[in-house]
Amino acid sequence: MQFLVLGNEQDDHAAHISTVLKTRGHACEFLDSTIFPQQLRISMSQAAQSGEIVFPAGRRVGFASIDAIYWRSYVMPTSVELPDAEQAYIAQNDARGMFESLLKQLPTRWVNGWEAFQLHQTKPAALARVAALGVPVPDTMVGNDPDQITQFVREHDEVIFKPVQGGAHTQMLGELTAAHLETLQIAPVTLQERIVGTDIRVFLAGDRAAACAIKTDAVDFRDDPCPEFETVDLPDEVLAHCRQAAAALHLRWTGIDLRRTQDDRYYFLEANPSPMFLGFEQYTGLPLTEMLVELLEHG
């Protein structure tokens, strides 16, 4: 079988999956957006329903021969520097427009695809889509209106804040200050009521599921250098909610973050379309590599 990994070998997860696929007798190439168009050549016709990719070593892979693509990471292509700023702008847009057309239109099995990526880039829309299913989510405010932000904070005993799109860890919001409100002129913020409880990470790969609890005193477990991991079995209703959320967000493979309260209520926090999993696999023994690879092989 022929697979592509969207990303490059500098990424541990991309390199790991590429290696595993090759050890299972498959062909695998890195679809690296950072080297397009300088080193990666692509041709497509009829809205990308047919075409070919020529990789840096010279290997040619036709669209029709690609069985599946693992979307690990996408970075917008950058063009070479040009003396004319307008021509540089046009060249960059042309590179981005063609590569993203490939991501949207290449006819193969994506794990995951363009729709999932776009929803992850607009997390408030993704959370709203999940909440509309009836899945419990924390009370959430996204915006940059100081009056509305102030009102939200007053209505909750404890509030956490995080970036709208991501890129930084979740933090507790103590006293709301004028300095906090001034930053709203720079960027909006996501505020949520703090749900006190245990972090639960759920991995879904097609029909398969695996979960673990993360014991930590940190607001964001990623800030804890020594969190404790324990595999858990989730109630059927919670697993059903996770599957509903994944389907709504176009996710075949995902890591879903939940918060479990002391009275066993589960709140959905977010779903990642390309979750890091090697650390979880190492600490818990969950067969996450196998789950992902079998999804790529069999759908």
Poorly predicted residue ranges? none
Helix and strand content put the structural class at alpha+beta
Helix content: 25-40%
Arithmetic mean pLDDT: 93
Provide the succession of SSEs.
EHEEEEEHEHHEHEEHEEEEHEEHH
Largest sheet: 5 strands, antiparallel
The gyration radius over C-alpha positions equals: 21 Å
Distance between the termini: 13 Å
How are strands sequenced across the largest beta sheet? 14-13-12-15-16
Count of extended strands:
16
Number of helices: 9
Shape: globular
Tell me what portion of residues adopts beta-strand conformation: 25-35%
Protein architecture, described:
The chain has 299 residues and is of the alpha+beta class. The protein has helices spanning 12-23, 85-105, 114-121, 123-131, 146-154, 178-182, 236-248, 278-284, 288-298, and strands spanning 2-6, 27-31, 41-45, 50-54, 60-62, 68-71, 109-111, 140-143, 159-162, 171-173, 189-193, 198-205, 208-215, 228-231, 253-260, 266-272. A 5-stranded antiparallel β-sheet has the order 14-13-12-15-16, with helices on both faces. A 4-stranded parallel β-sheet has the order 2-1-6-7, with helices on one face. The two termini are 13 Å apart. The mean pLDDT is 93.
